[in-house]
């Protein structure tokens, strides 16, 4: 990775003009160093990130537009514009857009670890992607998805 240069990343720009389609959500990477990776995300109504764990990363969201429903360490909570959501490493969390509106948020993780590479691996898998493949690809990049609640209860 190259050193970070000073400057401004404009609102409609990202790293190397990258725009990922991650299971119907749009992710635009804004900056990456070994210590931190940040991206702008747009989540249409009904999209979500299933409960998962980052064993080696702290994750944050700064909500710009819309209302998120979260499952944080097994507890439901809500985030709205202007809220900073803190997701410490090792704590299970799920991110859901249960509203009728598109959500826009700024995500970042520290350290970067393998998340950038995971997004390339998931890019354009599509809405009909095999969940087992998504889980396997994610696990290979140090993101551990949790089984659905009905499976976890058995």
UniProtKB/TrEMBL annotation:
Pfam families per record: Cupin_2 (PF07883)
Annotated Cupin type-2 domain residues: 40-107
InterPro entries membership: Cupin_2, Flavonoid_dioxygenase-like, RmlC-like_jellyroll, RmlC_Cupin_sf
Name of the featured protein: Cupin domain-containing protein
Species: Roseibium aggregatum
